[in-house]
């Protein structure tokens, strides 16, 4: 007897087939749910892609993060002179592209004030997209990631639309939903240039079918007013980021003359105010477990509990495996900047605080550490 016939007869004996009026038998199979971008907790958000392995903000970094299983990929967005959203950590191009080796752009080198700080270099707002596309990506921190630096020049600078296209195509090959989690960089700066990103970002998301609070998308910002503006433009989920120094102000709050600091935003009252316009908060991880003077971890704060009480999810940043980024107790004995420490140990400690997601440069590691996902629990 053929294997297919044996399977069919077994199914009939178990009563899971219908034969009506001589119609061909239909075997009832159990359809497992497709894994969604929010099916697993805590969410693994690939910070600038799998940037611990491939130069950040490249299609290669995003693709690797997706194949590793990341729930979301996170592009930082800035604007070109002709109004295109592109993925770069900053609007200054010198650290992440080969622009310094391009004599045709030597005349674009200049100094300006960005978010209250003097910066010198080449800036995205001085380049058209066509010019940006002639540049090649390079590793931003080669001393910590010499392996990434071997890929300098391998990738170009992607647009936001190209990232969406990559994600949608890989959803087919991966058989799951993959989220996109962009950050608006230097929002006030670009608004003052007439290159505000908020409307363009929302339009791009909506045009590609990302609509409503259940869409696999978040929009993040360190500023406050643009998130409140976005709340009027879209129902996509928003996340309020916190600067590393709690005493600092969001730059838009400094410009408008308020006294609001990140420290005030981290209080129970401040979190309740954020919950009026945002779905989640993204603190630097020291807000959750501060480091002591010897660079070891201290005791957890009430930040996660207070945020949850306000109805907010908590997605801290940034988790990195290299010694130079780890708390002292999780570092390896090597003195190399590129040495990998006990990254699992740090992740387990932070996950135990009840965080709902995390930004990470090596997404494969927390994927092995976190709880099993929804689709596995249903099997």
Automatic annotation (TrEMBL):
Domain (GP-PDE) ranges: 42-351
Signal peptide start-end: 1-22
Keyword Plastid part of the UniProt annotation: no
Enzyme Commission (EC) number: 3.1.4.46
The reaction(s) this protein catalyses: a sn-glycero-3-phosphodiester + H2O = an alcohol + sn-glycerol 3-phosphate + H(+)
Pfam name, any one: GDPD
GO molecular function: glycerophosphodiester phosphodiesterase activity
Keywords: Glycerol metabolism, Hydrolase, Signal
Enzyme class, spelled out: hydrolase
GO BP: glycerol metabolic process; lipid metabolic process
PANTHER family per the UniProt record, alphabetical: GLYCEROPHOSPHODIESTER PHOSPHODIESTERASE GDPD5-RELATED (PTHR43620:SF7), GLYCEROPHOSPHORYL DIESTER PHOSPHODIESTERASE (PTHR43620)
Family (UniProt): Belongs to the glycerophosphoryl diester phosphodiesterase family.
Protein name: glycerophosphodiester phosphodiesterase
Provenance organism: Papilio xuthus
């Amino acid at each position: 007897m053929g294997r297919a016939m044996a399977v069919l007869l077994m199914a009939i004996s178990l009563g899971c087939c219908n034969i009506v009026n001589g119609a061909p038998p239909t075997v009832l199979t159990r359809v497992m749910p497709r894994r969604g971008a929010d099916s697993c907790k805590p969410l693994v958000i690939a910070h600038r892609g799998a940037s611990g392995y491939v130069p950040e903000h490249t299609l290669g970094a995003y693709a690797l993060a997706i194949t590793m299983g990341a729930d979301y990929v996170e592009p930082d967005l800035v604007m070109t002179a002709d109004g295109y959203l592109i993925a770069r950590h900053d609007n200054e191009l010198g650290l992440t592209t080969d622009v310094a080796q391009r004599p045709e752009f030597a005349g674009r080198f200049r100094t300006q004030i960005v978010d209250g700080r003097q910066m010198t270099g080449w800036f995205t707002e001085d380049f058209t997209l066509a010019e940006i596309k002639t540049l090649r990506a390079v590793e931003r921190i080669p001393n910590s990631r010499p392996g990434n630096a071997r890929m300098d020049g391998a990738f170009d600078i992607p647009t936001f639309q190209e990232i969406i296209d990559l994600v949608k195509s890989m959803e087919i090959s991966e058989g799951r939903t993959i989220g996109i989690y962009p950050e608006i960089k230097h929002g006030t700066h670009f608004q003052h240039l007439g290159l505000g990103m908020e409307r363009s970002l929302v339009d791009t998301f909506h045009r590609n079918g990302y609509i409503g609070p259940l869409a696999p998308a978040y929009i993040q910002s360190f500023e406050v007013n643009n998130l409140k503006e976005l709340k009027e433009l879209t129902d996509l989920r928003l996340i309020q980021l916190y600067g590393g120094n709690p005493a600092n102000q969001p730059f838009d709050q400094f410009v408008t003359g308020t006294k609001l600091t990140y420290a005030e935003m981290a209080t129970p009252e401040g979190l309740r105010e954020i919950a009026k316009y945002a779905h989640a908060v993204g603190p630097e991880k020291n807000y959750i477990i501060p480091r002591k003077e010897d660079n070891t971890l201290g005791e957890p704060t009430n930040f996660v509990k207070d945020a949850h009480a306000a109805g907010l999810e908590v997605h801290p940043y940034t988790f990195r495996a290299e010694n130079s980024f780890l708390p002292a107790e999780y570092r390896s004995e090597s003195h190399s900047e590129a040495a990998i420490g006990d990254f699992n140990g740090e992740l387990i400690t932070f996950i135990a605080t009840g965080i709902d997601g995390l930004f990470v440069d090596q997404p494969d590691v927390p994927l092995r550490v976190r709880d099993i996902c929804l689709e596995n629990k249903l099997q």
